[in-house]
Amino acid sequence: MIKDVMVHLDASAADEVRLAAVDAVAGIFDSHITALFFNLLPVGIAAEDGIGAAASTRLIEQAREDGDRVEHKLRERLTRLQKPAELRRFDVFGDAVADLAAQHARAADTFVALRPNGASNEPERLIESVLFGAGRHLLLVPHHKPVKIKLDRVLLAWNGSRESARALAEALPYLRKAQEATVLVVDDDPLKAAPDGMGQHAVDHLRHHGIKAALHRARLRDGDVSATLIAQMRQLKADLVVMGGYGHSRLREWLLGGTTYELLHRSPVPLLLAH
Question: 45, 117, 118, 142: most buried, per Cβ within 10 A?
Fold first, then answer.
């Protein structure tokens, strides 16, 4: 079950999107909410900048005081969720944020975040660190407006990889809540049998867990797996898509683009991502 839901808050307008998702997940699974607040301290202060030690100390003190005010607002906002919740505050320099988030996510069931949008309110470095360093799944929601998490139709993107197997295992609590669970296999010719019964084996596995699942195969569109998946999300009216993250070298995906990278930025529905 999903009993510990973790989220990063930064007191920006994006918090409302994050908290809407967290509130929905906590409501579905009767979960505890843990929010992480990283109060950033000033960096790069040097003697050549004309700032003395006393002034430097004062800047750090001011940052801590500003953090006190933000912390108070965040605690008030969490109480309005009317669910068991806690706030963990860290006064840190910016380069420590991603690693700290991953460390704390290891003791949670899921980490909720916004899909990366190139803005500072959800740095890709944080998402990458949690995905690769936490050993838990990420639940990523579109960044532009609050989305109500529903589990009526859950779609599992399956290619038989280790990463998709990890995602399947992490997604079992969600799949058990789904009214419809679909295993989607993308291949060149849906009229031919899938190699080694790949998709059917995943369906059988879910059925052994008491989950009613169906196999759906889709023809690859123009050699683009991500475009094919997005089209299937819309066609099947998926509420949540489960997939493994970075089946190829993550450096290759960041530099050249790939299925994970494209869906991180373009998915129209929430993603459950595991590596």
Answer: 142
Q: How far is it between the farthest Cα atoms of the chain?
A: 73
Strand partners for 154: 181, 240
User: Residue 171 and residue 270: Cα distance in Å, rounded?
Assistant: 13
If residue 87 lies in a helix (H) or strand (E), which one and from where to where? Answer: strand 85-92
Q: Say which amino acid occupies 238.
A: A
CA 137/CA 111 separation, integer angstroms: 7
What is the β-pairing status of strands 85-92 and 271-274? unpaired
The amino acid at 52: G
The predicted-structure confidence for 88-144, as pLDDT tens digits, reads as follows 999 998 789 999 999 999 999 999 999 886 555 666 788 989 999 999 999 999 887
In whole angstroms, what is the distance from residue 228 CA to residue 180 CA? 20
* Contacts for 148 with CB less than 8 Å, ≥ 6 apart: 20, 24
Chain segment 159-177, per-residue pLDDT in tens: 999 999 999 999 999 999 9
Q: Residue 114: helix, strand or coil by DSSP?
A: strand
Model pLDDT for residues 182-218, shown as the tens digit of each residue: 999 998 665 565 566 789 999 999 999 999 999 999 9
The tokens for 179 are: 């009214």
